[in-house]
Every structure is written in structure tokens, then in C-alpha cells.
Write a structure and sequence with these properties.
144 residues; mainly alpha; 434 Repressor (Amino-terminal Domain); 2 domains; 4% strand; elongated; HTH cro/C1-type domain-containing protein; Lambda_DNA-bd_dom_sf; Cro/C1-type_HTH
Length: 144
């Protein structure tokens, strides 16, 4: 999937969640840009058929009450760039990388925590301990 398509999918998802029409989003963008986007321009953006300037990405984030990194989130598809594809893992890493002292917003903290929990739960030693715990519970029987 091209990065423009990933952004377009997020625009469509966020617009639908906020129950905005194509026209309403176009008008909201007009408050931040020189002129509003037409219904067709919003539709093209949602279909990944246009590139975005920094000002447009900023206006989209403001109009959709979100952050710019959220606009770039993608499913587990490879992201196509002009010189080649980026793996889903590398793409997610790009969105989460930040300076060490830069605070995380709540969603990023949750994503990182869930990833860390998944890493821990996938360890073979932990799986063996969980099985031992289940067997111990069965042997001990119901608590009185």
C-alpha cells in the first residue's frame, strides 16, 4: 500500500467516526487553508489519490481533532515508497520513534505497552510457567 493510501484510509475512518460528511470536512479544512476542499478533493484524499503538503496534513489533523502521526497509521501492509517498500514493523517504528526525553501521548504509551506484553507472553519460559501454574491449580483442587 502506498503511504498516501494509508493516510487516506485514516482520513476516511476518522471522518466517519466523527460523523462528518465529505463536504463538512472540506469546509473544516478551509478554516486552516486558503480555501475549503471540495467534496471531490476530500474523496480523492480518502482514496489515496493525492499527495499532501505539510500544511494540509496539519489542517487535516486539526479538522479531525487528531495528531499527524495518527494520520499515518496503517494496517499490517507493507508501505510502498518511491524507492521500495518498508516492512510494517519498520513503518510502525518510524511512527513511534522520538527523542528519549519527549513525552508519549496515551495512545503511544498503550501501543508500546501492548507490544511489550506481547513480547513477554511469547517467551517459551513464561509459557512453561503458565502450564505449571495450571497443573498446580488442578492438583490443589477448588479452594475451600
Amino acid at each position: 500500500m502506498r503511504v498516501e493510501e494509508a493516510v487516506g484510509r485514516q482520513i476516511a475512518r476518522l471522518r466517519a467516526e466523527r460523523r462528518m460528511s465529505l463536504t463538512e470536512l472540506g469546509e473544516a479544512l478551509g478554516r486552516y487553508l486558503d480555501k475549503p476542499w471540495s467534496r471531490q478533493a476530500v474523496h480523492q484524499a480518502e482514496r489515496g489519490q493525492r499527495s499532501f503538503t505539510a500544511a494540509e496534513l496539519t489542517a487535516l489533523a486539526l479538522a479531525l481533532d487528531t495528531s499527524i502521526p495518527v494520520l499515518f497509521r496503517a494496517d499490517d501492509d507493507r508501505i510502498e515508497l518511491p524507492a521500495g517498500a518498508v516492512s510494517p514493523e519498520d513503518y510502525r517504528g518510524i511512527l513511534l520513534n522520538r527523542e528519549p526525553d519527549m513525552p508519549l501521548d496515551g495512545v503511544e504509551e498503550l501501543i508500546i505497552a501492548l507490544h511489550d506484553i506481547g513480547e513477554v507472553l511469547s517467551r517459551p519460559a513464561l509459557a512453561r510457567l503458565a502450564r505449571i501454574g495450571r497443573v498446580a491449580d488442578q492438583v490443589a483442587g477448588p479452594e475451600s
